[in-house]
Amino acid sequence: MPGFNTRNLTVHVGGHAYLLRVLSDRQQFADPDGHGERLGISSAQWCLFGQLWPSGKLLAQAMARADIAGKRVLEIGCGIGLPSLVLQRRGADVVASDMHPMVEPFLAYNAALNGLPALHYRQLRWGHPLPALGDFDMLIASDVLYERGHAELLAKVVERHSRATCELVLIDPGRGHSAELTRLLAAQGFEVSESRCPMDDADCDARGRLLHYRRAA
Q1: Where is the signal peptide (predicted)?
Q2: What is the pTM of this model?
């Protein structure tokens, strides 16, 4: 792909091997028309979408086990989109979303690499309502609360795009903002359960958390 370097990696989830095209490292940057800059993506942040992060792999593993029967699913801040690819393989009604201008071609390429139909993708900026996106039975996200104010923005996305009966599955690597999200979602009628999970083989303290928010009609 022009302007930056990529590599392929293989990840095993739910008994399947997924081949992914990702950015070769965290030094990649290409924004020749300034599209990313206009969206507020700095040169330091530009490469983050194109990595497979431990939280994304954990969410993909959770989606390999999740009950998805009859549910419409939205992945928020999908990045490289492995959880959505896992859901696509399982036959889920899934929409992947992100704000980065390069996410859509990477998702299409990776779906093709794995012999899957192209994912349904929508560019979603959390602070800009997108009524045409519709609402969902399940929302999923990984490591999206990494800046102050993200909890409030994410809570508003949930409010706009959740059905009366809804769940949010969130992998949080312990950045410190999930308590605020829990408070905001409680005001929307969500209850939360939590399970600890190691972020990688070196995480002896299991600092990661799988947060499962549920709201009954």
Answers
A1: none
A2: 0.94
Distances (CA, A) of 183 to 32, 63, 70, 191: 41, 25, 29, 10
Q: In the structure encoding, which two tokens stand for residue 202, read together?
A: 């070196």
Backbone angles phi, psi at 53, to 5 degrees: -90, 155
Q: Cα(first)–Cα(last) distance of the chain, in Å?
A: 46
Q: Which of 159, 161, 113, 109 is nearest to 134 (CA)?
A: 161
Residues of the domain holding 208: 48-215
Which residue intervals of 39-171 are DSSP H helices?
Answer: 54-65, 82-89, 103-113, 150-161
The count of domains in the chain is: 1
In what helix (H) or strand (E) does residue 178 lie, and over which residues does it extend? helix 178-186
24-40: per-residue pLDDT in tens? 998 888 877 888 888 88
For tokens 């700095």, the residue is 42
Q: Is 176 left (phi over 0), alpha (psi -120 to 50) or beta?
A: left
User: Is residue 34 assigned to a domain?
Assistant: no
Asked if residue 3 is part of any domain, the answer here is: no
Residue 60 lies in a domain: yes
> Per-residue pLDDT tens for 79-98?
999 999 999 999 999 999 99
Where would I find the beta strands (DSSP E) of 34-145?
A: 72-75, 93-98, 120-123, 136-142
Pairwise CA distance, residues 183 & 195, whole Å: 18
CATH number at residue 210: 3.40.50.150
